[in-house]
């Protein structure tokens, strides 16, 4: 009997140690993912250094630190007059002022076509400023970065809910071939986006679903839940998931739910959750938000 109890005790200890190892490795994985996210936010291509979003008028637009320009850049990091940006039928060109130092891929330029571009945006540089063109519907804008911007300097990290494996849920992919989601962004502009399908899962025995954008191989979700404005960002959060397996299953890990760029800067144009992606449950996992809701 004593030998049997010793064997059972050893077995229980092994199970406990295995579970403990799994728990701690999972927690370490989530913490590592979150640290990478913070590192990415701080990069030159991250969201924390956004310093302006300026909608272009058809024809000539002047840029620089002087308030006489039609588009005013931060004067402490800009010449009074940098140059002119011309928008004509969806094509955008830049012409530098004779005295301004502007670079494209680290080479000084006097004139360049900067939109449309192939692949990555065409980025112009002046002192600590970086800017490129974005398109939203039939509108075009300058997205400005400042490598010494206020939001980057004041960033102090992101609080999160406690990590729990209960929020890693198994989901079934249901394709919706040819479906388009009607998306409204935080500025009120609307557009359509292709959806590869929806993902169905259960929380506490109740079924929910999220419609994805992106692709089946790289599904992306914009979702809302009952924590919005009560612990998490009011405009919803983002989430990515692995591709479903051969049987159509994957795991959605709400511990990796993250705030949209609009939680960090007023110069982003974030999509809002569709009606179908507003979950009637409090997702107490992932990133929190303590700013102005």
Question: Would you kindly provide a written description of the structure presented here, covering whatever features stand out?
Answer:
By secondary structure, the chain is of the alpha+beta class. The chain folds into 2 domains: 30-44 and 156-277, no CATH class; 50-153, Tumour Suppressor Smad4 (Sandwich). It has 2 helices and 20 strands. The protein has helices spanning 2-42, 150-153; strands at 50-55, 59-64, 71-72, 83-88, 91-96, 103-104, 107-108, 111-115, 124-126, 129-136, 139-146, 168-175, 180-184, 190-194, 197-203, 206-211, 213-214, 219-223, 237-240, 249-253. The chain is elongated and about 65 Å long. Residues 12-20 have low confidence and may be disordered.
Main features:
293 residues, Tumour Suppressor Smad4, 2 domains, 6-stranded antiparallel β-sheet, 2 helices, elongated
In short:
The chain is α+β, with helices and mostly antiparallel strands and 293 residues long. It has two domains: 30-44 and 156-277, no CATH class; 50-153, Tumour Suppressor Smad4 (Sandwich), CATH 2.60.200.
Q: What is the succession of H and E elements? A: HEEEEEEEEEEEHEEEEEEEEE
How would a textbook summarize the main sheet? 6 strands, antiparallel
Portion of residues within helices: 10-25%
The mean pLDDT is 92
Strand order of the largest sheet: 1-11-10-9-6-7
Number of domain units: 2
**Main structural class:** alpha+beta
- Give the beta-strand count: 20
The number of distinct helices, counting runs of at least 4 residues, comes to 2
| Low-pLDDT segments | 12-20
Oligomer: single chain
Distance between the termini: 63 Å
Radius of gyration: 24 Å
Give the CA-based shape.
elongated
What is the strand content?
A: 25-35%
């Amino acid at each position: 009997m004593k030998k049997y109890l010793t064997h059972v005790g050893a077995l229980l200890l092994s199970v406990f140690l295995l579970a403990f190892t799994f728990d701690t490795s999972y927690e370490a994985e989530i913490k590592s993912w979150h640290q990478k996210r913070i590192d990415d936010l701080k990069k030159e291509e991250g969201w924390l250094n956004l310093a302006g979003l300026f909608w272009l008028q058809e024809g000539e637009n002047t840029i620089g630190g002087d308030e006489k320009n039609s588009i005013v850049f931060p004067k402490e990091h800009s010449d009074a007059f940098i140059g002119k940006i011309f928008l004509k039928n969806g094509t955008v060109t830049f012409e530098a002022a004779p005295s301004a130092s502007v670079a494209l891929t680290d080479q000084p330029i006097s004139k360049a076509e900067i939109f449309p571009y192939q692949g990555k945006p065409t980025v112009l540089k002046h002192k600590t400023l970086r800017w490129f063109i974005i398109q939203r519907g039939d509108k075009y804008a300058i997205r400005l970065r400042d490598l010494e911007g206020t939001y980057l300097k004041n960033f102090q990290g992101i609080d999160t809910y406690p990590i729990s494996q209960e929020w890693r849920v198994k989901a079934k992919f249901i394709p919706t071939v040819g479906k388009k989601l009607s998306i409204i962004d935080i500025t009120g502009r609307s557009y359509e986006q292709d959806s590869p399908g929806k993902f169905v899962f259960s929380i506490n025995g109740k079924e929910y679903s999220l419609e994805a954008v992106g692709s089946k191989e790289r599904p992306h979700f914009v979702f809302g839940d009952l924590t919005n404005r009560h612990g998490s960002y009011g405009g919803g959060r983002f989430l990515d998931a692995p591709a479903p397996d051969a049987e159509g299953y994957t795991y959605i890990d709400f511990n990796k739910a993250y705030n949209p760029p609009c939680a960090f800067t007023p110069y982003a144009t974030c999509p809002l959750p569709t009606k179908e992606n507003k979950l009637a449950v409090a997702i107490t996992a992932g990133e929190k938000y303590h700013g102005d809701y």
